Amino acid sequence: MSKSPKFMVFHLKELIYTFILIVLGIALIITLVLMFRKDTTTSAPASDCTYKAGVYSSYITLNGNPMEIQVVLDDNHINSITIENIDDSVATMYPLVKPAFEDIANQIVSTQSLENVSYNPESQYTYSVLYNAICDTINSAK
């Protein structure tokens, strides 16, 4: 057996394709890591800001008539919760909507919490629909 040197011949085109493939693979891995990592940078610590300040709205529909729920928040407080654009037909057909809404809104604003909101058992459905809409609106601000 002779020990003759073995030569490998690479074509320049194959080297370029291999280099491009490696660069694209590294770029894909970096992109995936950046996309799926948890974002640890925040503008303020969680203990300092509870909400993003602003006016938040959501809509609920009763019998085809939309009502707008507006929640005004600053960084740490729920300032007000109001119901806007309530049609007269909704107020007539559902007389418990306004008092139930005002009751829930007053409880949430006074306690600054969505927990332990009491309601009248006779109008449980009305309270639950309004409470869920208010919670969704406030949770969108977190």
TrEMBL record:
Transmembrane intervals: 15-36
Domain of life: Bacteria
Keywords assigned by UniProt, alphabetized: Membrane, Transmembrane, Transmembrane helix
Identification of the protein by name: FMN-binding domain-containing protein
